[in-house]
Amino acid sequence: MQVWSAENEKWDYVDALRSSLRHDPDIIMIGEIRDGESARVSVQAARTGHLILTTLHVTSVFEIFERLLDFGISYLDILSVTKVVMNQRLLKKLCSCARPRPIVPGDMVGD
What we know:
Elements: H1 13-21, E1 27-29, H2 36-47, E2 51-53, H3 63-70, H4 75-81
Parallel strand pairs: 1-2
Helix pairs in contact: 1-2
Protein name: Type II secretion system protein E domain protein
Organism: mine drainage metagenome
Keywords: ATP-binding, Nucleotide-binding
């Protein structure tokens, strides 16, 4: 099931999440947790046995816990519902002229 929501209408993000809980899903993918209310509803859903997959905009994996604490989620709730945390970064791709050349031992070089 996919639910659309818009922040400028009466049917907002948190209402869509609460409504999806009534359908008894096993897994809920939340685009991004942006405020305390959506964080609280997400934790409530996780405590009732739903697997919640979501994103947070942070610069390191350690900031995830700090951000959830800032949203008003207790440390105990964070620890009880968190299964996996990971961080992703985009790295610049070096052009071939700037790439370091690998050092290859002489006995590995073919004729």
